Amino acid sequence: MEVNGDDGEPTAKSSAEEEMTTFSRHNFGNSENTDDGFSVTIIENMKEEYGLFVWPCSIILAEYIWQQKSRFTGASVVELGAGTSLPGLVAAKVGADVTLTDDSSRVEVLTHMRRQCDLNDIKCKIRGLTWGVWDAQTFSLCPNIILGADVLYDSCAFDDLFATVTFLLQNCPSSVFITTYHNRSGHHLIGFLMVKWGLKCVKLLDGFSFMPSHKTSSLSGNIQLAEIILDTANRDDTKLM
Ligand SMILES: C[S@@+](CC[C@H](N)C(=O)[O-])C[C@H]1O[C@@H](n2cnc3c(N)ncnc32)[C@H](O)[C@@H]1O
């Protein structure tokens, strides 16, 4: 395997039978100095459906985690719809106890997550977690921080996602959902769903506002980062039944 690139550029093809597999390297801080930075290598597979690419939202959320690393050290973190898992891997690198999750029915994605961890020598738990589906594993999760990069892309799945996020926020007091998403149609629907599920946004940033300029050349779109918590003052649980 040859990995020469920098900051998310796919760099090399692997063997003939895996000719659609590429590797991208993502640098954080001063990656030459292990005291003040590191690199994460991600395997991407162009043959598979979406979920096995590093989407721009993931690069932006991973950079935010690096810049906010003191919040993550020692935290329990669950990444939803993790796919190639860059944000969760960065959280683990800065000292979080991370559970990477994706759709339980997409076994190839869960297998792929294990390969990402092994390649980077990072320890994370890996679980199937389908939004809006409740099983014993989901009930046992109690994260301080929930991550979701590009998980708000199919409005048919928004309610299921918000149901899972709300459950996790309720399960662990003072927890926060940090998400990056393409703001394609304004915040009306997301705002509506936050009210419906008794949540509120406490931070909303232009995803490009904190990105180092050398990381933005391959990124495009109107990407927002939101931090969302339970709105305990205005919560009416009877509306959710
Ligand atoms: C656009 S991809 C984003 C992947 C990754 N977070 C990133 O930004 O590179 C959406 C991810 O959500 C997952 N997903 C879609 N529907 C889901 C569901 N109902 N439950 C759990 N995961 C789901 C997909 O498998 C995929 O990994």
TrEMBL record:
Q: Which UniProt keywords apply?
A: Methyltransferase, S-adenosyl-L-methionine, Transferase
GO biological process, alphabetically ordered: methylation
Q: Where is this region: Disordered?
A: 1-30
Concerning InterPro entries, the annotation shows: Methyltransf_16, SAM-dependent_MTases_sf
List GO molecular-function terms, semicolon-separated: methyltransferase activity
Compositional bias (Polar residues) at which positions?
Answer: 21-30
Its cellular-component GO annotations read:
cytoplasm; nucleus
Q: Name one Pfam family in it.
A: Methyltransf_16
The protein's matches in PANTHER family, at most eight in alphabetical order, are given as:
HEPATOCELLULAR CARCINOMA-ASSOCIATED ANTIGEN (PTHR14614), HISTONE-ARGININE METHYLTRANSFERASE METTL23 (PTHR14614:SF164)
Record family assignment? Belongs to the methyltransferase superfamily. METTL23 family.
Task: Specify the protein name.
Answer: Methyltransferase-like protein 23
Q: State the organism named in the record.
A: Nicotiana attenuata (Coyote tobacco)
